[in-house]
Amino acid sequence: MIVEKRPLVAVIVGPTAAGKTRVALELAGRMGGEIVNADSLQVYRELDLGTAKPTPAERALVPHHLIDVADPPDPFDAARYQREGRKVLAALHARGTPPLVVGGTGLYIKALLYGLFEEGREDPQVRRRLRHELAGEGLAALQARLQDQDPATAARISPGDTYRILRALEVLAATGKPLSEQVAAHGFKDSPYRALKLGLTLPREELYRRIEARVDAMLEMGWLEEVRSLLSRHPRDLKPLRSLGYRHLINCLEGRWGLEEAVQLIKRDTRRYAKRQLTWFKADPEITWFEPGQVEEMAARLAGFFDQQ
User: Fold this and answer.
1) 42 with 90, same domain?
2) Of 166, 185, 204, which closes a domain?
3) What range defines the domain where residue 161 resides?
4) 309 residues of the chain, pLDDT tens digit each
5) What's the rounded Cα separation, in Å, for the pair 237 and 231?
6) Are residues 73 and 210 in the same domain?
7) What is the dihedral of CA 226, 227, 229, 233, to 10 degrees?
């Protein structure tokens, strides 16, 4: 039997609060591997509690990569993640160290494994027009426009994600083609790696219980104070500060919502985000699904996979 010589990469995906960090630490420790972060917010310094970033103690157990590699004002997107992630994978492969890519940002993982399609160059004129329309009509109107013109893309974007809604509309205006059509045309089929993809899942009621408990724990650890500190140093419209949870607590600190209302909205929107993550990952037939307690089964799959190298 001929074994392909492409480098091997293992991936652990799943919705927020499914237990990816704990499982990854256990598996990486057993196999002598290193963890490559695939969470789009954990790349940022200063955003610690609200991103459920592995603690310093956890990072001391197993080497981690692509955590704390950007300051909040720095541009960071899937293209930069792909570039930096592939450099990390090359270094790990050169040392003979098994890489374990771990996270819930599906686009980043696709970019890392399969590359990116060409969205078209940014169009400053279109972007200015959209910004003007955003100020005049509001984000909900632009989200509704995206839903009408590119429903597949709209379904993958949070209704509060200003950056991605504007970018999808900009691509549509600049190229005349919906972003979802361009994604489908790219196909994401060819990869320089051989990947083993493991997914973590839980019964919906248990996942939602974990989400709510984790939000409460983050707040008890000082998440609101973390957001207040970020606002003292950075403008509120930075991309990472518009993310889930952070934008809610900013609205609380600025008096738009009370804390109780903000917390309930964080929990609601995190449940919705977890549902979108599962929809994204369930569409990938290469993912084998496990519950977080099935560590032995996952370890056996990883051992068999990396024994092929």
Assistant:
1) yes
2) 185
3) 124-185
4) 444 689 999 999 999 999 999 999 999 999 999 999 999 999 999 999 999 999 999 999 999 999 999 999 999 999 999 999 999 999 999 999 999 999 999 999 999 999 986 555 567 888 889 898 999 999 999 999 999 998 988 887 877 788 789 888 988 887 788 877 766 665 555 799 999 999 999 999 999 999 999 999 999 999 999 999 999 999 999 999 999 999 999 999 999 999 999 999 999 999 999 999 999 999 999 999 999 999 999 999 999 999 986
5) 10
6) yes
7) 140
Residue 69 in domain: yes
pTM, 2 dp: 0.81
CATH number at residue 289: 3.40.50.300
Residues 106 and 135 in one domain: no
List b or e across 59-92, with b for residues whose CB sees 16 or more CB atoms inside 10 angstroms.
Answer: eeebebbbbbbbebeeebebebbbebbbebbeeb
Domain count, the chain: 2
